[in-house]
Amino acid sequence: MKKAIVFGAGGFIGSHLVRRLKAHGYWVRGVDLKRPEFSVSAADDFIVGDLRDRAVVDAAIDTGIDELYQLAADMGGAGYLFSGDNDAAVMHNSALINLHTSEIALARKVGKVFFSSSACIYPKYNQLDPDNPKCAEDSAYPAEPDSEYGWEKLFSERLYIAFHKNHGLDIRLARFHNVFGPEGPWQGGKEKAPAALCRKVATSDDTIEIWGDGLQTRSFLYIDDCLDGIQALMKSDFIGPVNIGSEEMISINDYAQLIAQIAGKTLKIKNIPGPVGVRGRNSDNALAMEKIGWSPQLTLAEGTERLFRWIIGEIG
Ligand code: NAD
């Protein structure tokens, strides 16, 4: 039986990943500051601990581990990452986790280490045109991420690559682009656009407020497709970094209208000042197709409908 550890197992993608690994017959240990919010973890063993503490990482990674998935990070939606108030915490907390993880995974001879980087590493200057953003993997340098969160991800990508080059640590690096789905944050400040918009549409009968002019574009990847991408990368010989995202780009205003349609409502949009990030962002999946044979299967409308139904259930 393969043994896996998931750091960040109490979070959105981590809790789904634990369930997926269990379904594939793994023994799984989850580690996180907290247990999953919306369901009981499927992990065989769950350590509630702070991965900034080297002793916690040291205790969590024993020998004989086939795969370690490092998903723990201090993160949130635009309201958290772009306010400027959380920059020091985001950089310091996540870098500490990755510094400890790379070192101890090597010492304990972990089979493969997966690290979740982000589309937020891509340079601002390539994402000024909402209709034509450039996010191919080789466009990452010269670097100019638009947030400290992106800079930390870029640093940690390089950290894992350095451990690979100098010490032979077997790594897989994915750059996730806006992953969404049920059992993720949908209120309280850490939710991202899909869940926030679904909540606004579900709770409104007249007008919904959207940050910025709403012409900024994004793409959103449904969680099941993300898990397929992680598994395809882990099975391949390609270390990455590789985009795991959707190429179905949409403006935020149009996305709100799509959700209103799913809800069967006619709503007005009021654009208000707020943190918005880059003007345009879309995944470029050419490398993922070529190297790991993966591309998303669900349309944005199909995935969003599943999320919307789940949020309706949560609102009650
Ligand atoms: P999440 O916030 O739901 O999960 C991250 C988890 O890490 C949380 O449960 C949190 O408690 C845990 N964590 C944070 N600091 C910790 C610490 N010091 N010790 C132990 N646990 C700690 O986020 P997610 O959406 O599941 O994202 C998972 C990973 O994927 C993150 O690394 C994130 O940066 C990356 N990513 C996500 C997206 C996305 O759209 N969801 C996009 C790009 C990259």
Structural class: alpha/beta
Order of strands across the main sheet: 3-2-1-4-5-6-11
Low-confidence stretches: none
- Count of DSSP-assigned helices: 10
Strand content: 15-25%
Roughly how many Å is the radius of gyration? 19 Å
The N- to C-terminal Cα distance equals: 40 Å
- Quick one: how many beta strands? 13
Largest sheet: 7 strands, parallel
H-E order = EHEEHEHHEHEEHEEEHEEHEHH
Please characterize this protein's 3D structure.
With 316 residues, the protein is an alpha/beta fold. The protein has ten helices and 13 strands. It has helices spanning 12-23, 54-60, 78-81, 87-107, 148-167, 193-202, 223-235, 252-263, 286-292, 300-315; strands spanning 3-7, 27-32, 45-48, 67-70, 112-118, 171-176, 179-180, 207-211, 217-218, 221-222, 242-244, 250-251, 268-272. The strands form four sheets. It has a seven-stranded parallel β-sheet with strand order 3-2-1-4-5-6-11, with helices on both faces. A two-stranded parallel ribbon has the order 7-10. A two-stranded parallel ribbon has the order 8-13. Strand 5, helix 5 and strand 6 (171-176) form a beta-alpha-beta unit. The N and C termini lie far apart (40 Å). The chain binds nicotinamide-adenine-dinucleotide. Nicotinamide-adenine-dinucleotide binds next to helix 1, helix 4 and strand 5.
